[in-house]
Amino acid sequence: MNVLANAVSPTLDAQGLRQIALAAGADDVGFVAIDDAALDDQRADILAAFPFARTLMPFVVKMNRENIRSPARSLANTEFHHTGRECDGIAHAIVETLETLGRRAAYPPLAFPMEAERWPGKMWVIAHKPVAVAAGLGRMGIHRNVIHPRFGNFILLGTVVTDLDVAHDCAPIDFNPCLECKLCVAACPTGAIAPDGHFDFSACYTHNYREFMGGFLDFVETIADAKSARAYQQKFNDSETISMWQSLAYGPNYKAAYCLAVCPAGEDVIGAYHADKKKFLHAFLDPLKEKVETIYVRRGSDAEDYVARRFPHKRVKHVGAVLRPTNVDGFLGGMRNLFQRNKAEGLEAVYHFIFTGARRRQATITIADKKLRVENGLIGQPDLAVTADSETWIRFLRKETSLPWALLSRRIKLRGDPRLLMAFGKCFPG
Prior knowledge:
Elements: H1 3-7, H2 14-24, E1 28-29, E2 32-33, H3 43-49, E3 55-62, H4 65-69, H5 73-100, E4 105-106, H6 128-134, E5 139-140, E6 146-147, E7 155-162, H7 183-187, H8 201-208, H9 213-225, H10 229-233, H11 238-250, H12 258-262, H13 270-275, H14 277-290, E8 294-297, H15 302-310, E9 315-318, H16 328-333, H17 335-338, E10 349-356, E11 361-368, E12 371-376, E13 384-389, H18 390-397, H19 403-408, E14 412-416, H20 419-426
Parallel strand pairs: 8-9, 10-13
Antiparallel strand pairs: 1-3, 2-3, 3-7, 4-7, 5-6, 10-11, 11-12, 13-14
C-alpha cells in the first residue's frame, strides 16, 4: 500500500483527507463541492476533464520569501520552479493515496497547461485561484494574487479532484488580508496594477511572461523573418537569446512578479512591515524600483507611457503582439485583456460588429468613460458598424492583409465615421 495511506488514517471524511494532504506536504488545504456556485463559470470544463468530480481539494504550498524578494531574477525563478514542482508532487502523492484507498482522483498541473490547441483561449482545466478562495484559503489582493491569512501571497496553489462527497465547513474567509497599502502598485514596472484597482492584463503579460508562450512565438517568428544573423540581432541581443535558452532549458523565467515580492500581508509576513515601514520599503521595494532593466511593452500601449514617466532609468523595448486572436470568438473574448483605457480617454462610441463567413457572430462594443463593454448581439444605434468576413478580419488583425485591400474588395465594410475605426484601434495597440 502507498506509504501515505499507511501513515494516515484511512478515513475519507474532511479530517482524514486533510491529514492525507498535510502528510503529502501541503501547508493548508480546503474543500469545494462541484456544485458550489463559485465554480459556475468553470464547472463544465472541470467535468469534461474529470467526469467523476464531486469535491475539489485546493491546497497551499508556501514559498521562501527572501528568494522571491530578490532583484536577481534567478533567485526568484528558482523558488517558483522548485515550489511548482513540489506542488505537482504533492498533488501526485494525494491522488496516489486516494487511489490506493479505492477512490477516483486526479489533478491538473500547477503551471501553464498543455491544451495548446485552445490557444490563445482558455488553455487551463482548473483555475486554481477562485477554487482556493471558495475553500477559504485566502482572498484576492489588488495585485490579483491569492493572499493566505498566514503565509501571505508567498504561496503556490494546487488542486486535487475526487469522486468523494465530503461534508465540510470550508467557506470564503470573511475578511481580506490585503492591506491596500498599494506597494504592489509602486513596484509594478509596467503600471499593470492601478491604485483604483484596475488591472492591465496586457501590460503584465507582455513583460512578465516575455519568455512564455506569446513571447516565444515572437522569438520564433523573428528567427524565421531574419535574413541574416545581424538582422536577428537587431531585434534580439545576445543576453536576450541566452535568457530564452535558459527558459527553454530550465523552465520559463518570470521577468518581474514584484507585486508578490513587496506584499506585506499575512500573519507570518506583516510583523516587519508594522515594526518599521520605512525600513521595509528600503529593504524590499526600493531595490526593485531602482533596478536597471529592460521592460517589454507594445508600441502605443499605456505601459509604454507609464515606464517613461515612472521609471525613466529602465529601458523600454517594443515587442510584437503576444496575444493574437485566431478567430473572431477569440477576438471578442480577448478584448478585455488588451484594452488600454488611457488610450480610450475622450472616446465615446458604440460599435456594431457583424462577422460573416466561416464564423458568424454579432456583437456590440461600447467604449465610454475609459471603460469597455462587449455584448452579444446588435444593441442600440451604432456610431460605426463594421461588417466583415471573419477570416479576413483575423488576417487584418494579424497584419497578413491590408485594410485598404479589404475595403476595396468589400471583405470589410464600414457604415459610419471611419475615423472611429482608427480611434478603436488605438485602444488595442498591435
